[in-house]
């Protein structure tokens, strides 16, 4: 069989006859012409079938029969299409296929997702098929580019991949959003973050990262929350929190550049503003202390174009506050040193200010919200034990974690990036449910 060419690569075959394996996503035509919209997972493009060419090639009878068969192909029929690649300035993609043969592989009947508009619940019910649409393909390609850039960044910066477990005996973040399961008559929890295990890894191997699914029993229905999502955690010894922020900034820039370099077709499909993304790579990120951010929010709360609620020092932000702050700066912004009261137990206090902790959330601009949470970790055995108790947790459950402070404790910091938040930000999508192949939300576990 002739070797198949991917649609994304047809630019290398102008003037040549190629064969592609594809699905028919849409079709139109009149008279002697049929326009087939083809997709193969790498890109979409148009193939043109011209009846006189078929008659010239196959004779009147066979040529007409072949043309008529093509005319009646249903949406999502799978096909091998042979044809000559042509440059075409009128098409957005820039290339077209002048078809010489079409071979049906698998037929299709009454495909539910027609080119017209559908409601989102219907599309989510048909997620296994919705993934075939152009927009969803583009988002998944961006997701892939981010994952690839992540591995590349950590490899280049001396990190080792260290896989943390999914089933765990203790909470990593908080006890309210834990999924509990029965583990041979004992309770076990689905991991909320690999962080605690990564800290053990950092003491064994130095710079480590993990990347895997995590679970949070989020009862909130927002456009930023999933109950199952993918987190990339990194942890490293002998660093201060400031140094950690430098690394996070370099990491996020590397991912953005990776998307620009390796998912340009997807960005074009999604009509993402590339100059904005390039600006985020070229401009230093902002860093603002939590208390300064509160002052700023208070100073602007009466402005005409603001719509967030009043916040006091000590309050947590809602998403309107995060959106306003990141738009105010126009670049990804670290909010540093939040109140200890609403952050996790393992964070180290700011020296001289025990009410604040050495942590940062990285807020994406354009309203995409928090993409990274990170902190410097408490290193003192007694202080950490007390913190665990103060948070209503049992130090016995954390004995192994406390051991890390017993045997050669060192300053260390780390962070976790929510993959789907990053995908949403890069793809410019409204809702996080499109950023993962099969989203899990409070009211959705199928398909
Ligand atoms: O801020 P979080 O809760 O931080 C941690 O879990 C730390 N243990 C990470 C670490 O230091 N290693 O979560 C990290 C990131 C958030 O910034 C956000 O991007 C994402 O995970 N995230 C969610 N994404 C989708 N749905 C949810 N329900 C999310 N909750 C957090
Ligand atoms: Mg957070």
From TrEMBL:
Residues 142-437 form the Aminoacyl-transfer RNA synthetases class-II family profile domain. Pfam families: tRNA-synt_2, tRNA_anti-codon. Homodimer. Its main location: cytoplasm. Its EC number is 6.1.1.22. Belongs to the class-II aminoacyl-tRNA synthetase family. GO terms for biological process: asparaginyl-tRNA aminoacylation. Keywords: Aminoacyl-tRNA synthetase, ATP-binding, Cytoplasm, Ligase, Nucleotide-binding, Protein biosynthesis. GO terms for cellular component: cytoplasm. SUPFAM superfamilies: Class II aaRS and biotin synthetases, Nucleic acid-binding proteins. It catalyses: tRNA(Asn) + L-asparagine + ATP = L-asparaginyl-tRNA(Asn) + AMP + diphosphate + H(+). This is Asparagine--tRNA ligase. It is found in: Cytoplasm. The keyword ATP-binding applies. InterPro entries: Aa-tRNA-synt_II, aa-tRNA-synth_II, aa-tRNA-synth_II/BPL/LPL, Asn-tRNA-ligase, Asp/Asn-tRNA-synth_IIb, NA-bd_OB-fold, NA-bd_OB_tRNA. GO terms for molecular function: asparagine-tRNA ligase activity; ATP binding; catalytic activity, acting on a protein; nucleic acid binding; transferase activity.
């Amino acid at each position: 069989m002739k070797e198949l060419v991917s649609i994304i690569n047809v630019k290398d075959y102008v003037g040549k006859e190629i064969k592609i394996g594809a699905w028919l996503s849409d079709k139109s035509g009149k008279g002697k012409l049929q326009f087939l919209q083809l997709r193969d997972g790498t890109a979409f493009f148009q193939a043109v079938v011209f009846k006189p060419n078929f008659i010239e090639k196959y004779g009147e009878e066979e040529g007409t029969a072949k043309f008529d068969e093509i005319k009646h192909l249903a949406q999502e029929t799978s096909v091998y299409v042979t044809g000559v690649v042509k440059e075409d300035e009128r098409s957005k993609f820039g290339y077209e296929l002048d078809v010489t043969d079409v071979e049906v592989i698998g037929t299709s009947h009454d495909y539910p997702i027609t080119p017209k508009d559908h409601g989102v619940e219907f599309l989510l019910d048909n997620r296994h098929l919705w993934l075939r649409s152009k927009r969803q393909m583009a988002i998944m390609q961006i997701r892939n580019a981010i994952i690839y850039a992540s591995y590349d960044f950590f490899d280049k910066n001396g990190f080792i991949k260290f896989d943390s477990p999914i089933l765990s005996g203790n909470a990593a973040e908080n006890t309210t959003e834990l999924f509990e399961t029965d583990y041979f008559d004992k309770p076990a929890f689905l991991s909320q973050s690999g962080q605690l295990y990564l800290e053990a890894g950092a003491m064994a191997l130095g710079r480590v990262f993990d990347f895997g699914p995590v679970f949070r029993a989020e009862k909130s229905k927002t456009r930023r929350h999933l109950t199952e999502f993918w987190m990339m955690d990194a942890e490293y010894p002998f660093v201060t929190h400031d140094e950690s922020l430098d690394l996070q900034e370099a990491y996020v820039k590397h991912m953005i550049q990776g998307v620009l370099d390796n998912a340009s077709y997807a960005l074009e499909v999604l009509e993402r503003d590339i100059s904005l993304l390039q600006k985020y790579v070229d401009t230093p990120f902002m860093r603002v202390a939590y208390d300064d951010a509160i002052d700023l929010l208070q100073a602007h709360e009466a402005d005409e174009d603001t719509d967030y609620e009043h916040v006091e020092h000590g309050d947590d932000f809602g998403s309107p506050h995060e959106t306003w702050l990141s738009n105010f700066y126009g670049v990804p912004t670290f909010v540093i040193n939040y109140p200890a009261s609403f952050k996790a137990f393992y964070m180290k206090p700011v020296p001289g200010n025990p009410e604040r902790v050495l942590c940062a959330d990285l807020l994406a601009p354009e309203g995409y919200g928090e993409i990274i949470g990170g902190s410097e970790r408490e290193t003192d055995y007694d202080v950490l034990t007390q913190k665990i108790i103060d948070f209503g947790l049992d130090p016995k459950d954390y004995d192994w974690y406390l051991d890390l402070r017993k045997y050669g404790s060192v300053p260390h910091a780390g962070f976790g990036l929510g993959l789907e938040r990053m995908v949403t930000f890069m793809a410019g999508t409204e809702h996080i449910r499109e950023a993962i192949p099969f989203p899990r939300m409070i009211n959705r576990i199928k398909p």
